[in-house]
């Protein structure tokens, strides 16, 4: 690799300009999730991954790879610092802001003091967007993190990664090449050989990271790996369990209950038989922070997907959840316990205010504007054909009437089906409610199309002079002006729909994906003390940096780029979360 690439050695020349040639990777803008190309490509890859994943499960093949249980912590002090970040490989500004904070020797956080960099970094899923490839990982993740920490003198931090759904879109091919072959990310070492791992921590703490492939199941080689690792567990040990998605949030839904049953099965099969207890669950996938605390107990369920992906809302989160849910199919499941929502970021009121930002939809996603204009123009032209034929007399006779309106009717059916499917994207949405909102949304678009057709018909008949129709102006207006105006108007109709539907729990993800909010990012810094106490520091940065300059004269371990004109200000989302290990009989 080039001396300025992601594996930059200490003696390599530091970049003097922010260019791909100097950096060794190409910084990427934030993904425009409602751009038609991204929507289609991501949808197709997700569909193919779901269909073929069951027949070509890369996890089954990993059984032939070396199986190791890793160990981290200071043998002298019995302590360890480590970090957790998830949903990170999106736009450069957000991802590099978080990476540079993670890479710092220490963070001076108000009300928390100086927090040293973690000995290990756990990436909790979705390390790249919109879909995995070696090139995408280099430009959106590996190059970014190597630039943040190009070199370390002495003991280097170790990076572990758990795949999320976007990492799975190519069947884990690129993920395994990037994270499971021992290749460093600048100053970060990698050690894992599979897409899942077990780490022994000080004071009888363990970290297990499960690869559940779209919340589907745990494969046999993975179960065998954790069964073997669990032989090292002792009565009273505490476990931190990392999963690709926070299944506890949706455990009350049918799809969520299935995902939770996978976790419950792992607990009843691997953890509890060894006498250990899951004390903390960590996940990303949802691009916000939330924490559910066990009522009457100390277990914590933490979601932190603030590593770089677009921000998502928190106002729809349930105030409490019951785990395992009453509908669990695991016969050996433990007693149901209620967990209360103890903290969230952004706050509920702030989260609701973000909804209005979707009104910038056509400007944040110009491609959506363009495609909406083309589609709506076709519908309006079909309506015009039905109203008056191809700008001629009205059709006469029943069969002529049917023939003239057939294109408009067919397009109308496609519009209704499309918007109903859009409203039912979220599996948590009631099918009936999604159908009602989808039909209502389609009706607005179709009503506007009919109104546009009537307006244009009247203009051509009574207002526009005949001589105008015979020149090129009319042609330009129809081919350029009509799609531009219709695209803008109908894009705003979609934006207003998303604002309204989100209040009823519909298309919440699309509401925020269409905005691609890069601010409000963060991660978790954790510390296991000599007395066995685990402290979780949820760290946020309200504003990401959008202007960077090269630092050619910096020390080998300094970030290759530094903020220009701003200072990154890490803060606590909430007071440190304190988790004590379960009382042990022999203590």
TrEMBL record:
Keywords: Membrane, Transmembrane, Transmembrane helix
SUPFAM superfamilies registered for this protein in UniProt: Metallo-dependent phosphatases (SSF56300)
InterPro entries: Metallo-depent_PP-like (IPR029052)
Keyword Transmembrane: yes
Coiled-coil positions: none
Keyword Transmembrane helix: yes
Renumbered residue ranges of the record's region Disordered: 1-22
Gene3D superfamilies: 3.60.21.10
Transmembrane region(s): 33-56, 368-387, 399-422, 434-455, 475-500
Protein name: Metallophosphoesterase
Native organism: Thermocrispum agreste
Taxonomic lineage of the native organism: Bacteria, Bacillati, Actinomycetota, Actinomycetes, Pseudonocardiales
């Amino acid at each position: 690799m080039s001396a300025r690439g992601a594996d930059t050695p200490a003696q390599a020349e530091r970049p003097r300009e922010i260019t791909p040639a100097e950096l060794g990777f190409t910084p990427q803008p934030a993904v425009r999730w409602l751009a038609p190309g991204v929507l289609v490509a991501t949808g197709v890859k997700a569909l193919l991954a779901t269909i073929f994943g069951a027949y070509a499960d890369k996890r089954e093949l990993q059984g032939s790879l070396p199986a190791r249980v890793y160990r981290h912590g200071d043998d002298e002090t019995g302590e360890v610092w480590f970090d957790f970040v998830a949903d990170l490989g999106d736009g450069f500004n957000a991802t590099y802001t978080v990476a540079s904070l993670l890479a710092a020797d220490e963070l001076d956080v108000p009300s928390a003091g100086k927090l040293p960099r973690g000995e290990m970094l756990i990436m909790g899923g979705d390390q790249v967007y919109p879909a995995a490839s070696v090139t995408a990982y280099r430009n959106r993740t590996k190059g970014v993190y190597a630039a943040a920490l190009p070199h370390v003198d002495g003991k280097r931090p170790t990076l572990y990664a758990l795949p999320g759904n976007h990492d799975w879109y190519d069947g884990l091919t690129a993920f395994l090449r990037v994270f499971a072959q021992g290749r460093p990310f600048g100053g970060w070492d990698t050690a894992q050989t599979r897409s899942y791992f077990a780490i022994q921590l000080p004071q009888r703490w363990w970290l297990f990271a499960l690869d559940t492939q779209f919340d589907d199941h745990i494969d046999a080689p993975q179960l065998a790996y954790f069964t073997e690792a669990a032989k090292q567990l002792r009565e009273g040990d505490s476990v931190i369990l990392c999963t690709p998605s926070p299944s506890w949030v949706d455990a009350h839904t049918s799809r969520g209950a299935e995902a939770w049953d996978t976790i419950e099965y792992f607990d009843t099969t691997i953890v509890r038989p060894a006498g250990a207890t899951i004390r903390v669950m960590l996940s990303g996938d949802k691009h916000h922070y939330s924490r559910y605390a066990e009522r009457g107990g100390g277990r914590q369920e933490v979601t932190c997907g603030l590593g770089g992906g677009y921000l998502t809302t928190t106002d729809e989160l349930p105030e409490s959840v019951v785990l395992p849910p009453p509908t669990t199919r695991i016969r050996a499941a433990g007693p149901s316990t209620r967990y209360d929502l103890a903290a969230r970021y952004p706050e509920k009121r702030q989260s609701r205010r973000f909804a209005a930002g979707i009104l910038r939809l056509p400007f944040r996603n110009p491609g959506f504007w363009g495609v909406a204009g083309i589609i709506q123009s076709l519908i309006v032209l079909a309506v015009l054909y039905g109203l008056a034929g191809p700008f001629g007399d009205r059709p006469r006779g029943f069969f002529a009437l049917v023939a003239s309106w057939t294109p408009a009717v067919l397009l109308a059916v496609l519009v209704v089906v499309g918007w109903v499917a859009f409203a039912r994207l979220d599996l948590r949405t009631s099918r009936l409610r999604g159908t009602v909102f989808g039909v209502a949304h389609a009706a607005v678009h179709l009503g506007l199309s009919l109104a546009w057709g009537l307006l244009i018909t009247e203009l051509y008949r009574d207002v526009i002079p005949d001589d105008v129709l015979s020149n090129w102006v009319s042609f330009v207006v129809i081919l350029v002006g009509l799609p531009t105006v219709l695209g803008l108007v109908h894009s705003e109709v979609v934006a207003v729909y998303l604002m309204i539907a989100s209040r009823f729990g519909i298309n919440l993800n699309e509401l925020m994906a269409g905005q691609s909010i890069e601010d409000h990012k963060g991660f978790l810094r954790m510390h296991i003390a000599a007395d066995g106490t685990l402290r979780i520091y949820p760290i946020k940065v309200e504003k990401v940096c959008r202007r960077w300059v090269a630092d050619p004269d910096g020390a080998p371990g300094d970030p290759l780029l530094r903020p220009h004109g701003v200072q990154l200000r890490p803060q606590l989302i909430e007071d440190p979360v304190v988790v004590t290990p379960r009382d042990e009989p022999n203590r």
